[in-house]
Amino acid sequence: MCYSTSIDKEVKDLEIHFQRKLKQERLFVKMDTNLGFIHNFTPILSNDESQFITMAQWGLLPTWAKDRSFQANTLNARIETLTEKPTFKPYLNNRCLIIADGFYEWQWLDSKGKNKQKYCITIPNKEIFTFAGLYADRFDTATNGTYRTYTIVTNEANELMAQIHNTKKRMPIILPPEYESHWLGNGKLDDFINIETELIATKC
Whole-prediction pTM value? Predict the structure, then answer.
């Protein structure tokens, strides 16, 4: 699974990388560690507004969820069950790219997880990359406006990540650049299973 990411870049770095301007810049904060359960706003590219980078809150909120506490259940979504789960099924065509430059995972060093080793996972040179995601919009009665929420889509762990995430053996789907437009264009889910991306794992 994926509950902790990094986006330790400046706004200009994101805009140069994606050749798009960032809207809602006031919501952007550089974060070496972005904890999912805090539900921070994160930069994304969504398929309904792909000409801009926008900000969205981690933890997808379906329209029927009573309050934001539900977001703790939707930080991640398994690609194998997206078409079955009522939480995610209505949003299968709401595709987005979640922007990051790393994520964190903990390797269990004993059977009960009392001793753990933290790893930082990046692509080479800690370049910017994207996770596959789904989004949903939520009406906010306090501001009488809407805000966007998202979930990171996960897959079975590859060989490296299975050694690190050695309990559930899952990992977020990291999209190589050539797959990003295919994801945003509602490409078939099967096309994104077991995508190979070069990852660097560093103890931290």
Answer: 0.96
